[in-house]
Design the sequence.
């Protein structure tokens, strides 16, 4: 029995035999053809491209139907590349001028494309995977081999792979794929996002799990704890079966809480909101008892497409969310583009360290037409709703003031055009860097609310890339330095009378609910499935209990002590949630 620790990106437990997906490398030798056969090779290439386009469109339609059109839009890049005239000419030239086979033309041209991407910073890795995906599809259609399909599994299996292409993940058979374990890192990769959308327990960042597993081995994938257990003994399997059953029973028991308030035993009310990326996720938030949307990420309007969304695209997406929320509060975060996303494709030169570069509000302030387009849409959508506007990655007062000035400029433009909007829209800022946390008293005088973004706050405070599996063990929200910054921001909000919410992963981890409550947090925003568990803990304790836990935690000087202590205290409140 061997245990591997990774990053849990989709909760749940799956116990099943493994199927290890190979890398599907095709052997494409350099073969030349005579001049009179080049036309036949061009015809083969054209047919392979046609079949590939048809397959991708079918896959995109299926993905849109099963998961949503926003997720399906990741295949726009595939279609765009296949339709690219420059790429087609390079294929044709390789066949006509160099007189090579269609397979060799495809492999060499697309490998050169991939090499160009690989020469760029690491954040473009997802695009490289898309290019490999297209290459494999074209080669399959030229050579005639069938890929190791995840759509036609006959029995329940846990899938293990070094990495999966977006199309492999999207077309997985949900009836038989029980869990997913990936060597590569990246909680924000397309693969992780699709796995979560499909509700498949998944762990990423495992480094070498595929080297330790053979197809047919029994594997336990624990997406909740971020663990994979290979060839477990009978006692472990039985223990996990019981644990999985308890989890299912416990989750069902929480359904009864949906319409009850998140109120402590001594009568203090807490607000529980949901984080979403797509309008279609609003239903899940409300179904789990969320009181509104605490964080609406808007980046997905930009990803998976090479076209910039129009004001109408923004407006319709926001109005859809606001309509579905029926008067409940909605916080729209302005685009947090940069680093591994859309912006780098438009940069004249890639940045050396994009996570410390031109991203988030910095990018918006340097691309005013794009920023104003989004602001206009938010303001137009604000009529008759409880919408707030949230700026990401504010690190100094000048940035905040510039952003607010641009909002006022957009308001003036709308007034001149006779377009209605809410002039009293609340404006807040993410606190997700040490500089913002340390300056929170100054910022509090200029915003209507704070939203603590703990994912980036941990990353920047501890200097740990949260997507890098090699340093994943150093990424700890329980680090005393991080907790002191969080406490400082909550206290600043109380002093200045402005609300403070927390929208990072920490808000949805029940292990931290007691601590955050004790530190004074009264608004949690998390992924929808986490809402009932957090509510259960809130309804099970008094503020005095929570404050005592917080006092004790702040006396520790290591994250391990803190985690162990919080686990014990949480188990006291909810033994069914943390049974070993």
Sequence:
């Amino acid at each position: 029995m061997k245990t591997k620790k990774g990053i849990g990106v989709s909760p749940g437990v799956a116990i099943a035999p493994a199927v290890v997906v190979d890398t599907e490398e095709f052997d494409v030798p350099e073969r030349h053809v005579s001049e009179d056969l080049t036309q036949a090779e061009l015809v083969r290439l054209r047919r392979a491209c046609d079949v590939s386009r048809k397959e991708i469109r079918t896959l995109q339609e299926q993905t849109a139907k099963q998961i949503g059109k926003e997720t399906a839009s990741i295949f726009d890049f595939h279609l765009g590349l296949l339709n690219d005239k420059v790429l087609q000419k390079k294929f044709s030239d390789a066949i006509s001028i160099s007189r090579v086979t269609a397979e060799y033309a495809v492999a060499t041209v697309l490998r050169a494309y991939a090499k160009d991407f690989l020469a760029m910073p690491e954040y473009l890795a997802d695009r490289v995977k898309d290019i490999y995906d297209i290459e494999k599809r074209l080669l399959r259609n030229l050579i005639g081999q069938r890929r190791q399909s995840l759509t036609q599994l006959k029995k329940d299996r846990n899938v293990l792979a070094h990495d999966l292409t977006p199309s492999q993940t999207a077309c997985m058979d949900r009836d038989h794929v029980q869990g997913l374990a990936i060597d590569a890192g990246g909680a924000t990769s397309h693969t992780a996002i699709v796995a979560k959308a499909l509700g498949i327990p998944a762990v990423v960042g495992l480094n070498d799990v595929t080297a330790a597993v053979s197809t047919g081995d029994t594997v336990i994938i624990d997406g909740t704890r971020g663990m994979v257990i290979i060839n477990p003994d009978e006692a472990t399997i039985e223990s996990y079966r019981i644990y999985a059953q308890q989890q299912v029973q416990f989750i069902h028991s929480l359904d009864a809480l949906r319409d009850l308030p998140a109120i402590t035993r001594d009568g203090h009310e807490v607000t529980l909101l949901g984080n979403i990326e797509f309008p279609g996720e609003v239903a899940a938030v409300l179904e789990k008892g969320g009181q509104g949307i605490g964080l609406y990420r808007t980046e997905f309007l930009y990803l998976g497409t090479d076209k910039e969304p129009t004001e109408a695209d923004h407006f319709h997406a926001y109005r859809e969310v606001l309509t579905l929320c029926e008067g409940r509060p909605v916080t729209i975060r302005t685009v947090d583009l940069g680093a591994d996303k859309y912006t780098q494709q438009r940069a004249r030169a890639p940045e050396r360290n994009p996570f410390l570069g031109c991203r988030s509000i910095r990018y918006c302030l340097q691309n005013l037409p794009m920023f104003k387009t989004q602001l206009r849409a938010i303001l137009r959508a604000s009529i008759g709703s409880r919408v707030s506007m949230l700026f990401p990655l504010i690190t100094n007062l000048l940035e905040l003031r510039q952003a607010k000035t641009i909002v006022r400029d957009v308001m003036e433009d709308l007034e001149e055009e006779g377009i209605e909007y809410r002039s009293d829209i609340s404006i807040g800022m993410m606190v997700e860097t040490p500089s913002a946390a340390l300056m929170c008293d100054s910022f509090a005088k200029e915003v209507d609310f704070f939203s603590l973004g703990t994912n980036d706050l941990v990353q920047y405070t501890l200097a740990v890339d949260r997507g890098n599996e090699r340093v994943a063990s150093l990424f700890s929200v329980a680090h005393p330095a991080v907790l002191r910054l969080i406490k400082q921001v909550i206290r600043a909000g109380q002093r200045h009378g402005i609300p403070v919410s927390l929208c990072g992963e920490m808000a949805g981890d029940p292990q931290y609910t007691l601590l955050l409550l004790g530190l004074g947090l009264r608004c949690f925003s998390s992924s929808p499935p986490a809402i009932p568990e957090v509510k259960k803990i809130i309804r099970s304790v008094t503020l005095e209990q929570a404050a005592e836990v917080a006092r004790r935690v702040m006396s520790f000087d290591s994250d391990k002590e803190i985690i162990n202590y919080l686990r014990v205290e949480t188990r006291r409140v909810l033994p069914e949630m943390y049974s070993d």
